[in-house]
Amino acid sequence: MGRGTDAPNSWALGDGQQIPWEYAPAPEARDIVQLRSRYGMFINGKEVAPRSGQWFTSVDPATEEPLAEIARADVEDVNQAVGAARRAFRRTWGEMHGRERAKYLFRIARILQERSREFAVLESLDGGKPIKESRDVDVPLAAAHFWYYAGWADKLEYAFPARDPRPLGVAAQVIPWNFPLLMLAWKIAPALAAGNTVVLKPASSTPLSALFFADVCRQADLPPGVVNIITGPGEIGLALVQHPDVDKVAFTGSTAVGKTIGRAVAGTDKALTLELGGKAANIVFDDAPMDQAIEGVVNGIFFNQGEVCCAGSRLLVQESIAEPFIERLKDRLSTLRVGDPLDKNTDVGAINNAAQLAKIEELVEAGVAEGAEMYQPACELPARGWFVRPTLFTNVSQSSRIAQEEIFGPVLSVITFRTPAEAIEKANNTPYGLSAGVWTEKGSRILNMVSRLRAGVVWANTFNRFDPTSPFGGYKESGFGREGGLHGLLAYLDLDGGR
Ligand code: NDP
What we know:
By secondary structure, the chain is α/β, with parallel strands linked by helices. It has helices at 75-91, 98-114, 116-127, 131-152, 156-159, 180-193, 208-219, 234-242, 255-265, 290-302, 319-333, 354-369, 401-404, 420-427, 443-452, 485-490, and strands at 10-14, 17-20, 38-39, 41-43, 46-48, 55-59, 66-71, 166-167, 170-174, 197-201, 227-229, 248-252, 271-275, 281-284, 314-318, 373-375, 391-394, 411-417, 435-439, 457-460, 479-480, 493-494. The chain has a seven-stranded mixed beta sheet with strand order 16-17-18-15-14-19-20, with helices on both faces. Strands 11-10-9-12-13-21 form a six-stranded mixed beta sheet, sandwiched between helices. Helix 10 links the parallel strand 14 (281-284) and strand 15. Helix 3 packs across helix 4 and helix 10 (290-302) crosses helix 11. It starts with 9 loop residues before the first strand and ends in a 5-residue tail after the last strand. The relative contact order is 0.14. The chain binds NADPH dihydro-nicotinamide-adenine-dinucleotide phosphate. The site of NADPH dihydro-nicotinamide-adenine-dinucleotide phosphate has 26 residues, from helix 8, helix 9 and helix 12.
């Protein structure tokens, strides 16, 4: 039973006694993470201070308190990191037998599992995501990617039979702030399994798990220079991807920056994969099991505060069930617990950074101004930190900003449809094409919808399921190339015996 509109907010015991219907605080201990006051970069197996002598601060989004100072790289640091990666590629990693590379990857996977609680707490502290998600999704999936790609490292000729798979060389990887450790794993695990070396730049608001990962590399005795981590602003990311000695560029983040990188790399022989934004439709037919569909819709948009490129941010619900569905969805929203990311009962944590919070608030205001009807549960928000209430909009027109633009926050726009053809038309009416969801009990309808939806991933009767064996990526403004599975390995290989 939830705390819906009809639900009591306390248990009556008779004699006037009441037991409040509230969760007690259940904070995860944060002392498993030992933070130093400063972190240098990780270049050629060593922690190095920035040549610029400049540092920036990483902040806890739930409290706005500083966590640690982080090195601000300059272009010379980028040169050093790429140079270290090139030497490691030539001297050790590029020529190492796959079964030896696999041992290092297995070791990294095991260490991540051994240190899983520490990484989960760190990820919630630096990123604002609920501990139950970093503990149960981010960290286990990050380890799973290393396990999975470790298994392929000595089997590349079986993965691509009758070809001669060779690594590309040095990979430049730029990752965002919504899944810092998981995006690192998506990028580093296949690159290393294929025999490449890497220079990775994490987002400036969430650099800590990458810097702790540097320690995992040391613990695993990874040869120096195979993984290098540089920290600094976007312009350093651009200098990295433009570096002439980089062979492969992999980026996840906004479509705007993806386009800048695309332009910067155009005309070179660098390989490129871009995983960008999304505006996914989660389509619910009138024969779908309603309770499950409601859970799927909630998970689709409120997982990780909606800061998910493949979030189901547009609910397309069949008109015949729209009214009861939306009522029950509102009830369910009123049970979501917003607050301290380190509390094990929290469903919706802090928004990652102040700029993102401002962007969400601006788009919510635009939704109201454009005439959509807003619903927000009456939950209390913490006095400090960057928080926003789960938000649902009905009466949303197809052309409104909240139906077209990626909000990247816990904001759901509801649109109705009558026929499958109308659902397809509306779902595909977006510049993006990353993911979609279909809820129906008819298998034939699922197959029909999947073949007509222009989305890289379509979930049927579920949403936001990830698996290292499954390729993930988009169409149109959501980018190109696939990560995960054999497709993800292919992005780091030349199948014709070297370039
Ligand atoms: P960005 O795309 O700016 O950041 C992603 C990464 O790219 C970060 O490491 C960033 O560094 C780096 N970067 C920024 N500018 C450049 C550049 N010119 N060249 C190379 N690298 C660069 O995302 P934002 O943080 O600005 O978020 C803005 C919007 O992007 C969000 O509101 C959301 O809509 C979308 N987004 C989508 C994501 C996805 O997974 N598809 C993830 C994150 C955001 P730094 O952090 O130092 O700026």
